[in-house]
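Researcher: We're teaching a course module on how sequence relates to structure. For the next exercise, students receive a sequence and then see the predicted structure as tokens, so they can try to spot secondary structure elements on their own. Here is the exercise chain.
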Amino acid sequence: MAGLTSGAAASGDPSPVTAEGAFRGIRAALLADTGSDELEGRSVAVQGVGHVGANIVRKLRREGATVYIADIAADAVCDLAAETGAIPVGVDEILFREVDVVSPNALGGILNSDTIAKLNCRIVAGAANNQLFAPEMGDELAARGILYAPDYVINGGGIINVAAEISGNYDEAWVENKLSSLIDTLRDVFERSRSEGRATHRIADEIARSRIAAARR
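Model: And here is the predicted structure for the students to work with:
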């Protein structure tokens, strides 16, 4: 078991680490796309304000971003808006706000040909799993000039945290080092995508397959 609250290796809910990785990933995407990772004056639409999404919102607001939020849990939206000053919008509207970043943190499969055609953002970067309805959707994002942070890279913080627990000797410094390495990988994905003219998810898949093959040797 992982995500434990007691015991020698316990670290509790891993969602704050997932949120921290996604937050850093958003900044990395902004840097790659605009040359600056400053959030002051930026706008972000956050879909889903559960444990991960809510923590992302808090981090974005602390750095001065304008944040729009939506979730089917209306009470959670109202509470988070009151706490942070985020702006509630409808669940059918959130993906299509005119913003710098759309951050999906709810259901998977939300990026399809219909939704991609209606996006009004520069970047898609969030912690939801399986955001692409099909792999070809990543190519459609690239064709539209939208920078996509591959989900299984940007949302890897929680898995890192769980791995530290499973080791039996939870080490916060180890988690931080791995989280920093994760963001380095994301930066590499962005740079290779730019230099090679290929979609980010294709680059990320190649890196993942290469690392898996190396680990099996």
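Model: If you want an answer key for the exercise: Strands lie at 43-47, 66-70, 87-88, 101-104, 123-124, 147-148. The chain has a mean pLDDT of 91.
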